[in-house]
C-alpha cells in the first residue's frame, strides 16, 4: 500500500510541477511578446530565455524527440529488433489525432460548451488516446507477420511498412492526401509534451526493471535460448512493437498539434533514420542515453541552422586536429581516413563554391555531418555514448566513492 | 491490345533496370550478409560520372561510338573505385561486428552520398546528354505500339550482364571464391581464399553494374538528380529479396516482376499506390516463402 | 587512450557549446545570416523583414529566383534611404522545399528574429503551412506566387487578416488556360496529367477541368504522378490510349521537362499546355526539343514593351546577368508592395501594415496594375507565353 501511495504522490507532484512550469512559461511568454523589440534587453535573462517562443519551441520538439527515441529504443535496444519504419507509426498517430480534433472536435466543443482552454485540455488527451490506439493497432498489424523474420529481413519489412503507410496516407483525400493536413489547432504545450515524455520514460523504465523487461532483454540476447527457457518470444516481440508504436503515435499527435499541420514528407524514412541516429548515439538499450541524445540532437539542429557554412569547415578541421594530435587514434586507419575525408571535403566545398553558395547549401551540410557522425560512431564506438548503462543517482554515488578513495561496496 | 503490349514493354524495360541494380545488391549480400544501402546511391553516382565525362569529352557536340563507350567505361571505373573505397573504409572494419552496426553504417554511407550529392551536384534535376538518341525501332500502324532502341538496349544489356555475371560466378576461380565465402567465410579463408581481395572484387563488380544501370536509366528518363538512387535503390533491393537474396537469376526475376507489377498498377485507377506495390509484393512473398522465390531455405542451427 | 578520447570528444563538445551560446546571446540569432552580433542595433536602426523560401530541395529554383527579385527591390529601397528613415534588412530562412520546415522557420522568424512582416512562399503548400502562424502572431505575410485560394482564405471560409498575395489565384488561372485551349489552340479533347503531391497542381487541374467542360471541351483522360517521379511512361501510355488533342500538365518545371521528352519518345506529338509552375529556364534545359512550342500561363513576360517592365529587366540583368523570369518579377513586386504599404502605414506595427496592404489600389507593378481585393488576392492580368528555343515568347494577355 505505501508503495501505491508513494507512486500516487509522485504522479501528483510531477503533474503539479509540470503544470506550474507550463503556467510560468505561458506568463513569461506573454510578457515577452508584449515587449517591444527595443526593450527586450531590459528584461531579466531568465525571462528573456524562457519567454522566447523560439526557445519554448526547441523544448517542445526536444520533448517529442524524447518520446520517439525512448519508444524506438524499446523495440531496437531492449528487445533487439530491427525496426526502421518508426516514422510510419508517428504518422498514423498524428493523423488519427488530427482527424479527431478537426472533424469531431468542433461538435464536441459545442456539445460540452468548452472554452478554448477547456477544448485544448479535453480534446488533446482524447486525441492522444486515439493516436496511441491507432498506432498500436498499426504496430500489431505490422508486428505479427513480420516478427517471424530475422535481422535484415525485418529491417526491410519495417521500412516497407513505413512506406506503405505513407502511400496510404497520401491517397486518402479527406485528410489532405499528398498535400498535407492543414490548420490543426494548437493544443500542444509544455505541460502535455513533458507529461507524455515522463509517462513514456517511466513506463519503459518500470518495464525494464520488471520480469517482463528481463524477458525482453533475454529475447534480445539470445532468442533461441529464451524460447528454450519458456519465454513466449513472439508475444514479447509483438508487445514491444505495439508499445513502441503507441508511444510513437502520441509523439506524432503532439507534433501535429504543435506545428499545426501534418505532411507525409515529414514522416519519411529520413525521419526514421533521424530517430535511429538518436538512439544509436545515446546507446542502444540505455534510456538516459536516448534522452540525452534526443535533446542534444534537437538543440544541435537549431544551432546548426544558424551556422554559417564556413564554420562547418572549422568543425571539420577541429575533428581532424583532434584525431591527428593523438597517434594512438590514427592507428585506427579507417577512422583517420574518414576524418581526413570529412575535413578535405568541407574545405574543398568551401573553395569550390565560395562562402555564399555554401550558405545556400547549409541544409545538406547538416545531414552530411550527421552521416559522417553515424559512420564514425559505428566504427569507433558502436555502443554509443552510454552503451547499455544508465546515468542515475547510484552512478554518481559510485563515482564519488571511487574518487574519495574508498572501495566500492562489493 | 497494342496498348497492353506497349505497357508490357514499358514494364519489362523498367524491370530490367531494377534487375541490374538488384544484381549488385544480391552479390554483396550473398558474400557479406550485408544490405548495402549505399548501392542505390552508387547507381546515382554512375549517372553523374557519365554526365560529367560526357561534358568533358563533349560527346553531344561531336558524338561518336568510341566516345560513348569511353563514357561507359569511365563511369564503370569510377563506380568500381567508389564501391571499393566504401568497402575498405566503412564495411571492412565492421566485418566481425554485430549486424545492426553494419546496417547503420550502410545507412550512414547512403545518406552521405545522397546529401553529399545534393551539396556538390546541386539538388535540381539535370538533363542527361543524349548519348544514344532514342529512335523507334518498331512502330505499329496505328502508332499505339512503339518500341524504341533505348528500351531494347536496356533489356538486352541487362540480360547480357546477367549472363556474364552468371559465368563469372559459376565458371571462374574468383566466382568460386565468392561462392565459397558466401557459404562459409572463415572456412573459405582457411582454404586459402584471400577474403579481402575477393570481397573487394565483388563490390567493384556490383558497383560497375550499378554504373551501367545508372547510365541506361539516365538515357531513358532522361534527367538525373542526386536522389534518384533512393527510390530505385530500395525497389531494386526489394526485387533482390523477392527473387531470393544471394541468387543471381532470382535478382533478375525479381526485378522484372517488380517492373511489371509497378507498370500494371499505374494503369489501373490505383495508380497512387504505385510506390507501395513493391513493398506489398515483398511482404506477401516473404510471408509465404521467407527466402524469396528462388532462394534456398536456410535452416537455423542451434 | 582514454585521455585522448575524452579530450577530443570534449573539444568537439566545447566547440558546439560555444556555438550554442552565441545563438542564445541576444534576441537575435547568432552568427550568420540572421543579423550580426549586436542585438541592440537590430531593431533600433533597421526594419527587419523575413523571407522564407525553398533555397534547397527539389524546387530550389523557386526560392532562388524569388530571392533575387526581392534582393533587387531591397537594393532599390535602401538606395532611396530605406523606409521610415531606417534601413531595411531581409532575414531569409530555407524551407528546403518542405511544408513542415516552412512552419518551423516562420515561427523562428516571427518569434526569434522579430520580423515586422514576412515574404513568402512560392509553393502553395508551404504558404498554407505558414499562414496560420503569421495570422496568430499578427505578422503580415505577403506571398509572391502562391496561387491556391486556401492560402488567404482559411478552411472556415474567413479571409485571413494578415495574409496577402500579389499574384492571381488558380480559380482565375484555370479558366484562362481553358479559354486559351478552346479559343486559341482550338482543342476540344484534353488529357490532364497532374501532380497529386501538390496543392497547386491538384487545385489548378480541377478548375481547368470545370471550365474546359463548360466551354464544350471534353477531358478524355486524367492521370497523376508524384513530385519527384522520373518515369512517366505508364501514365503517358494510358493518355496516349485515350487519343487527346492536347495534354495539360499543371505541374512544376522540374517534372514537366522530363514528361515532355518521354511523351515525344512514346510518339505523342500533341501540343502541351501548363500553368505558372513551368516558369523557369530549366524547363528548356531539361525539356529541350520536346517542350518547344508548348504554352503556359504565367505572371509576366520579359518581352513586354511596357516601360516599367523594361526598366526592371535592365536593372535585373545588370545585377544578376540574366533575363528575369516570372518568379523573380513576382518576388520584386511582392517586396515593393510590402515596402510601399509600410511607408503608407507610417509604422511597423503589424495591424497597421496589414490595413495598408489591404488598401493597395492600382499599384503600378512590373507584372501589371495590382489591386488587392477583399480576399487579399491580386486582381491583375494573366499572360500566356510559348516556349521557343531558349526563351519564352509572349503570346497573349487575358484580363479576367
Note down, in words, how this protein is organized.
The complex is a heterotrimer of chains A (410), B (302) and C (400). Chain A has 17 helices and no strands. By secondary structure, chain A is mostly helical. Chain A has three domains: 44 residues; 239 residues, no CATH class; 74 residues, no CATH class. Helices cover 72% and strands 4% of the residues of chain B. Chain C has 13 helices and 15 strands. Chain C has two domains: 203 residues, Rossmann fold (3-Layer(aba) Sandwich), CATH 3.40.50; 128 residues, Rossmann fold, CATH 3.40.50. In chain C, helix 12 packs across helix 13. Chains in contact: A-B, A-C, B-C. Chains A and B meet through helix 6, helix 11, helix 15 and helix 16 of A and helix 3, helix 4, helix 9 and helix 11 of B.
Topology:
The complex is a heterotrimer of chains A (410), B (302) and C (400).
Chain A: H1 2-34, H2 45-51, H3 53-78, H4 86-112, H5 116-146, H6 151-170, H7 190-209, H8 211-221, H9 223-229, H10 233-259, H11 269-282, H12 287-306, H13 309-324, H14 327-330, H15 333-360, H16 362-380, H17 393-403
Helix pairs in contact in A: 1-2, 1-7, 3-7, 3-10, 3-11, 3-12, 4-5, 4-6, 4-10, 5-10, 7-8, 7-10, 8-9, 8-10, 11-12, 13-15, 15-16
Chain B: H1 2-32, H2 39-57, H3 65-91, H4 99-121, E1 126-127, E2 136-139, E3 146-148, H5 149-171, H6 173-183, H7 185-190, H8 195-220, E4 223-224, H9 228-243, H10 248-267, H11 274-288
Antiparallel strand pairs in B: 1-4, 2-3
Chain C: H1 2-24, H2 39-45, E1 46-53, H3 60-79, E2 87-94, H4 99-111, E3 117-119, H5 124-136, E4 141-143, E5 163-165, H6 170-184, E6 189-195, H7 199-214, E7 218-225, H8 233-241, E8 246-248, H9 253-265, E9 272-274, H10 282-287, E10 295-298, H11 307-320, H12 326-345, H13 350-358, E11 363-365, E12 368-372, E13 378-379, E14 382-388, E15 391-398
Parallel strand pairs in C: 1-2, 1-3, 3-4, 4-5, 6-7, 6-8, 8-9, 9-10
Antiparallel strand pairs in C: 10-14, 11-12, 12-13, 14-15
